[in-house]
């Protein structure tokens, strides 16, 4: 089953930038593009000028604008488009389940909150079972020229980051880019020291060499699978959010993981992904993993 690149549009400039990026990504990967617009008619108890037919026409116009835009730019791209009669969050989560990735727009930098996700973006990213890419326009363009870097955050053991690294290497291979694999680390608190953990660090020659060794172990199978993709291992002491944002200053794409788990207050995207989504200058892909 070929999963499409799916983009949600709502008529805003940000969603059109997301459609541009999604169409470009689908072209790079040789995948079809699906464009969806969620619209649910909710009649009011008071008389209104805009009747249902007018609203239907407006919803179809939103879809046609995005569909025509990407078809004009990428005439050879296979594109399907649909107005889905449901709420935005429900529609996007259902579409994400069927897609290779879901692409949504973001509203850019604000004076206080930074990179604003909009009313539904964070809910979708926190709950989606497939990768979600958050995009905003940059200097009038939704994507960078080929080349450059795809920056990916690696945490935990090798098996913890397989899905995240796979997405990053596939993205880099598609656009002829370099993978910069970032592992941030910090000195453990005194109560976290144990003979076992210190023995492993000592065997590696210290804490930083231990972190480098762990990163290389995670990268090894993906270097083998994608031998043509250049790789820059990047190990740096500091908070993960700050290190990643600094590394991704000129990146084409920033790829992060989100552990799939339920908390007492519902699903969460995690502090590192939250920081990246609010402050990164490039598109941010959040990849769910076990």
From TrEMBL:
UniProt-recorded name of the protein: Universal stress protein UspA
Similarity comment: family membership: Belongs to the universal stress protein A family.
Pfam family, one: Usp
InterPro entries: Rossmann-like_a/b/a_fold (IPR014729), Universal_stress_UspA (IPR006015), UspA (IPR006016)
Organism name: Streptomyces lunaelactis
Domain UspA intervals: 1-136, 158-288
